[in-house]
Amino acid sequence: MKHFISIASCTLQELQHTLDVAAQLKQQLRAAGRNDPILAGKTLAMIFEKPSLRTRVSFSVAMTQLGGTGLLLRGEEVGWGQREAIEDVARVLSGMCDGITARTFEHEKVIALAKWATVPVVNALTDYSHPCQAMADVMTMREKFGDLRGRTLAFIGDGNNVARSLSVACGKFGVRFILATPAGYELPAADMDRIMSQVPQMQFQTARDPAAAVRDADVIYTDTWISMGQEAEKANRLRDFQGFMVDQNLLSRAPKHAIVMHCLPAYRGLEISADVLEGKQSVVFDQAENRLHYQKGLLAVLIGGA
């Protein structure tokens, strides 16, 4: 496992190993109040083209808690693909840093970065995928349910980057994935063909009725209906997603043990009601915290050789 660009490119054993290391580091932190400085003297270059809360904080704190340093590089400062060629950026950073993570718009930039870098590259989010989020979600589900094989996750929202990565993660871990979305907001057919070829054992279903989607769900997951770059579509999206809010009425249609997840930022009263977000079935903030713990495990494996 040299890079972490997509979940599909990793074996189940590799993914399980990162989760196991993450769980060990989380337990160590809680028991001892600190982690062993296994990344002492190591530096992670963090390229951010998009605004960020959880991603930036979690990678920075992860490096600090493991004894290393996270170096923030704003997209406009790097100017990759414009002022400076991506292959040059990759090799310059590889000569000075021990790892690179990038949160950017175009997925192709991260692929090119990994092609030319001689140090590990982590996809911290692109418009196409969000693998770190999806694996933190899997970590959270494992904490709540243990073995995930045979579980069902209902994703109430559009076929966005989170849904794409999470569906592949679910396929790898034997979780049935149901995407409940209005017509026109599904994952594109080309994406579905690619996903099914990469994870042929996946159980994937698209539904139009959220209530039917959550009927047997162990996990009810939602995300904002309006992601960065979609602001011009806001009025249409709000209209089209009427009836898709995760509220108490929808939650009452699901099994009593179901947990509620949201990758944040959340817009209370739109995709999720405030009482559900703050309710006893919500694990949203456990999920957010696990961004830190999973990324510590991932960096420990990629940079520290754990």
Describe this structure in words.
This protein is α/β, with parallel strands linked by helices and 306 residues long. It has 2 domains: 12-130 and 291-302, Aspartate/ornithine carbamoyltransferase (Rossmann fold, 3-Layer(aba) Sandwich); 133-287, 3-Layer(aba) Sandwich (Rossmann fold), CATH 3.40.50.1370. The chain contains 13 helices and 9 strands. The protein has helices at residues 12-32, 54-65, 75-78, 86-96, 107-116, 131-145, 161-172, 189-198, 210-213, 234-240, 248-251, 274-277, 284-302; strands spanning 43-48, 69-74, 99-103, 121-125, 152-156, 176-180, 204-207, 219-222, 259-262. The strands form 2 sheets. It has a 5-stranded parallel sheet. The longest helix is centred in the N-terminal third of the chain and has 21 residues, at 12-32. The protein is globular. The termini are close together.
Describe how the helices and strands are arranged.
Blueprint: H1 12-32, E1 43-48, H2 54-65, E2 69-74, H3 75-78, H4 86-96, E3 99-103, H5 107-116, E4 121-125, H6 131-145, E5 152-156, H7 161-172, E6 176-180, H8 189-198, E7 204-207, H9 210-213, E8 219-222, H10 234-240, H11 248-251, E9 259-262, H12 274-277, H13 284-302
Parallel strand pairs: 1-2, 1-3, 3-4, 5-6, 5-8, 6-7, 8-9
Helix pairs in contact: 1-13, 2-13, 4-5, 6-7, 6-13
